[in-house]
Amino acid sequence: MTTDVLTERAAAAPAAPAAPEPPTRRRRGRLLWLTWRQSRITLWAIAGLLVLASATLLWLHFSLQQMVDDLDRAGCHDSDSWSTINCWSLIDPIDRRSVVYTQWLQPAAAAVPLLLGMFVGAPLLAQEYERGTVRLAWTQSVSPLRWLGARIALPGLVALAAAGVLAVLMTWVWWVDIAHGPVAFDPPFQSFTYPVLGVVPVAWSLFALALGLLVGQLLRRTVAAILVTGVLVAAAHGLVRWTRPFFYPTVKEVVPLNGWQPHNAWLVDRGPVLADGRWVSTDSCRGHWERCASTTHSWIEYHPADHFVPIQLVETGLLVALTAAALALVFHRARRDGHALRATRRA
Amino acid sequence: MNNPTNTPPASAAPSIPAAPQAPAALAADGLGKRYRRDWALRDCTFAVPAGRICGVVGANGAGKSTLLGIAARLLTPTEGELRVFGEPSTTDDLRGRIAYVAQDKPLYPGFTVAETLRLGQELNPAWDQDFAQQIIDQGELRPKAKIGSLSGGQRTRVTLALALGKRPDLLLLDEPMADLDPLARHQLMGTLMAEAAERGTTIVLSSHLLPELDGVIDHLLLVQSGRVRLCGDLEDLLDGHQLLTGPAGTALPTGVLVEQRSTGRRVDVLVRTGEPLDGPWEGGRPSLEELLLGYLRAPLTAPVTAGATAGPAAQAQTTENGIAA
């Protein structure tokens, strides 16, 4: 052997391996280092955005509280007094702050699940497969399933926790300052309001993350996985929005011809009630106006405001089930091993 | 040494076959792997005794990587079985005993060299930091250098450090030396051979650079079109073949011809027998490269495993599914 070969070391230090430490606890803790090292940029980004969003929401809340106090002190208690110049000058900034919430923060928060799926879920496994590093990880002394669990768990749980904190703050500000504020009208079922309130945003984040993982594992191409995940999450959101009225039984009522659904309720459908008492759709009157001319009442089908929680729970259950299915598939495919080398050149 | 299971180091006594009771480092029985429609590997039956440095040779696409991938448990065989140190290759305890270097040397590009070694340390209970660090130092790599900024040869060095630091009993290397410069190749080959000699580590390395295997391997596995064509102790295989030159048209005993090439009035033949042939033949024992080229040039006829069970005088024999052990 030549001198630059590492022989002398082995001779000088006969390896005296200490009794191996209990493997399970040790390895689990150690996988945490790897997954932290790999996802630390993502985690810092999530933390930074969460701090930014939380600060904005807190600022919004406390400045609105201050303004509402000023409004009360000025004697502008109800909308009758608001026509005075004095009250109007106090209302205007409240209005502008509320618009920040409804026009900017709500759409941004509604996009959070999509962004988490695209930029946290999709690249996570796609990149490992694309670079072949999954074979590096799987040929260490830990089992692929344990590696996968750790690899997913840290960024996944942190993203979910962040989504949860954001949902709590968004719901709180909406409830205290918007729904019960003096000016803003923002019914809970409105398009950008519903998906950022309550438990549904967390469920969507969970689902988008799992879907991103699965798509990344299937496609093994980071860019493609990001795009496909984005399309799929958006499509799923559209589908759920379309079927959402059927998540819970609606309330059907007959109201006078120009009557409306109760405050904050979600009108699903309405139509005229014919003279013989039949409920028909508005479309059926088209071209047969004489048939509908004599109606004095309308029927309405709606979800009252208190259906908000049951509908959210049904939607959450659905999404959690889909998440479980996607994760089961991811783990099943990882256990089946045999696809790590397939995408690569064989010689 | 922390590995009591292996047979005596290969380089100390390269021609002594492994004791029969010691489980082979790798033992395949009817091993096959199919990718969708086509078979990458079929009917492979062979054994690599522990403590050997085994060269897996074959053309591109012959199934070398598939074979190593199965041994590294990255691939599940479609049929047959592979036993590693006598245990089915799916046994969980084997994880810590096998190290694998993939052909494309995957590493995390954002990690530094030091972080890559840390990965090895965190994920392998038997990690030997000093040993891994020495292999890195030998290549004069900065610990803070990002993997993404390294050259191909430097990446290979880091990958090998990661594999060797694991202190495996079986080291699987898929085309390990292809992008190394001659000095680094010499250093790392020396390190590998020292590792095999001192710890009895079994090394299985695939290569299509035939010259780099000469003087390194003491066991040979020739894979052709997904089938094992030759397997056995290298010396036995070489002794069991002759590279001969004779006049064209000279008859050969049936069943011994591996490959023949006509050069005008004379013909060069590679024959599978160590016995002298009748007739005007000249020549003798082939070199490793001549043997391999002869087989690689010859079309594959039937799955052939040349037995190498006995001493150097035994001739390699053609069997349907004989195991060389």
Q: Could you explain how this protein is built, in words?
A:
The complex is a heterodimer of chains A (347) and B (325). By secondary structure, chain A is mainly alpha-helical. Helix content of chain A is 64%, strand content 6%. Chain A folds into 2 domains: 27-247 and 313-335, no CATH class; 251-303, no CATH class. In chain A, helix 4 runs parallel beside helix 7. With 325 residues, chain B is of the alpha/beta class. Helices cover 25% and strands 27% of the residues of chain B. In chain B, a hairpin with a 2-residue loop joins strand 9 (219-224) and strand 10. Mean pLDDT of chain B is 82; it is low at 1-19 and 302-325. The chains are: A mainly alpha (347), B alpha/beta (325).
Oligomer: heterodimer
What's the helix-strand series of chain A? Answer: HHHHHHHHEEHHEH
Number of helices of chain A: 11
Which CATH class of the largest domain in chain B is shown? Alpha Beta
Q: Spans of chain A with pLDDT under 50 lasting ≥5 residues?
A: 1-25, 338-347
SSE string of chain B? EEEHEEEHHHEHEHEEHEEEEHEE
Helix content of chain B: 10-25%
Share in helix of chain A:
55-70%
Q: Taking all residues together, what is the mean pLDDT of chain B?
A: 82
- Give me the side-by-side strand order of the main sheet of chain A: 1-3-2
- Tell me the structural class of chain B: alpha/beta
Q: What ranges of chain B have pLDDT less than 50 throughout 5 or more consecutive residues?
A: 1-19, 302-325
Radius of gyration of chain A: 28 Å
Q: How much strand content do the residues of chain B show?
A: 25-35%
Question: Sheet with the most strands of chain B?
Answer: 6 strands, mixed
How many domains of chain A? Answer: 2
Question: What is the CA–CA distance across the termini of chain B?
Answer: 25 Å
Shape of chain A: flat
CATH homologous superfamily of the largest domain in chain B?
A: P-loop containing nucleotide triphosphate hydrolases
